[in-house]
Structures are given as structure tokens and as C-alpha cells.
Design goal:
With 152 residues, this protein is α+β, with helices and mostly antiparallel strands. The protein has one domain. The chain has 3 helices and 4 strands; from the N terminus they run H-E-E-E-E-H-H. The chain has a two-stranded antiparallel ribbon with strand order 1-2. The longest helix has 16 residues. It is globular and about 40 Å long. The N terminus is likely disordered.
Length: 152
């Protein structure tokens, strides 16, 4: 039998994760334009090539797809360029609520403008840098709330 010194309170992992997300969100709140920009070298071993779906273009572009293990959902692409945004506050909402149209609209109302001048919104996909053709996705915006794979 364990003595009182060995006993300790153990918080459920979900409670710890929620506290971490809340802490991060509160530290970033009020920081206008706060966005972490990540760059990957084109010769990195996890970067592949995507062929443009436009048959008139067909150019290959270096692209990185997250493994899904990073739990990068939800994420949203810019309506003008291929920039993508993933915010912990949206992840926390998705963790607490079922993915539905109402949740999508709630998150969409708070998405910022993209540095390129476009806007992060539900629905757009990454685009070919040569001709701006979108790489199509087969799911609607609500179902995509739970997709952990990001193309960068």
C-alpha cells in the first residue's frame, strides 16, 4: 500500500492539454498579426513534388505534407495564395465540439487576413505557383475540419 508521500494527484491528459491551449491562446491574445512562419528547404528529405493538375501547365512544385501525427486540424488556406494557417484556439474548439456547419462559421468569422492580401477562409486549397490552379480536395469544408494533413 502506498504511503501518503507517494500519493499525488494526477490530472487527466485532456485537462492538461486544455490548460496548455488556454495558456497559449492567452499569451497570443492581443498580438496583432501574430503568425509563425515556417520555411522548409526544398531539398529536405520529407519534401516531395506535386504535379499541377492543369494539363496545360503540368509543372512540378516542391511540397511538404504533414504526416497527420502533428494533429494539424483544423487548418485553412488563403483564398489567393497557398499560405495555410493552423491556430491552437481553433483546435481547442474542435476538440470540445463536434465538427458541424455552426462550428465552421464560428471559426471562419475569426480567421485573419493573409500577409499576401487575401484571406484565410474555409474551402480553398493549395494552388500551383505557376498557374494558380487549385489542387482539388474531395471533402467539403465541414468534413475537412478534422483533416490533419496539411500541404505546404
Amino acid at each position: 500500500m502506498a504511503n501518503k508521500q507517494q500519493q499525488r494527484t494526477v490530472k487527466p491528459v485532456t485537462q492538461i492539454a486544455a490548460q496548455l491551449r488556454a495558456s497559449f491562446a492567452s499569451r497570443c491574445a492581443g498580438r496583432k498579426g501574430y503568425m509563425k512562419i515556417v520555411h522548409y528547404e526544398s531539398n529536405a528529405p520529407w519534401v516531395g513534388k506535386m504535379k499541377c493538375p492543369n494539363p496545360k501547365c503540368g509543372k512540378e512544385t516542391p511540397a511538404w505534407q504533414s504526416s497527420g501525427m502533428s494533429d494539424s486540424c483544423p487548418h485553412f488556406f488563403c483564398d489567393t495564395c497557398s499560405n495555410v494557417i493552423h491556430r491552437e484556439q481553433d483546435h481547442a474548439l474542435l476538440y470540445e465540439h463536434e465538427a458541424n456547419q455552426e462550428l465552421l462559421e464560428q471559426i471562419a468569422a475569426t480567421l485573419p487576413n493573409c500577409p499576401c492580401g487575401g484571406r484565410f477562409v474555409p474551402g480553398p486549397n493549395p494552388k500551383s505557383p505557376s498557374c494558380k490552379t487549385e489542387y482539388a480536395h474531395q471533402w467539403d469544408a465541414v468534413k475537412r475540419l478534422n483533416v490533419p494533413f496539411m500541404l505546404i
